[in-house]
Amino acid sequence: MAVLEEAGVAFTLRRVDSEGGECDTPGYREVQPLGLIPALRLGDGRAIFESAAIVQYLGDSHGLGTLAPALDEADRPGYLQWLHFMAGTVYPTYNRYYWPPEYMLMPPASPGCESTWARSCCGYGRLSRMRWREMDPGCWDNGFPAAISICR
Known about the structure:
Blueprint: H1 2-7, H2 26-31, E1 39-41, E2 47-49, H3 51-62, H4 76-98, H5 113-129, H6 132-135, E3 140-141, E4 144-145, H7 146-149
Antiparallel strand pairs: 1-2, 3-4
Helix pairs in contact: 3-4, 4-5
């Protein structure tokens, strides 16, 4: 939503009751076959899902030079790196930490589940100790990687 607002794109927000099972309805599965959030219905009726894909699409289609570096800009590889790092590493780690039962093969009360949660905590701790700025000092804006600074 923040990227849509930053890009100045008119949109209608539709809240989805995921806890109430709306993500599993045929209507929602038509937009997002996996039943996950977020999803974005495009003006031509197609839909796009996955946070990084949505951000990259909006940056490329509505905000080159402002929301996302153009394809030929030197900052483009860093933008893509951090955008996909957030989606592929940070999001899953935080999700496992805050919602461990969703990622366990056994019921939460089963023996051995503590180790799954402990591994999640280990990943969370490793992320929280990273020296982000040192990893790519030229790719920062106000303390956030450029790929996610558009979402602050």
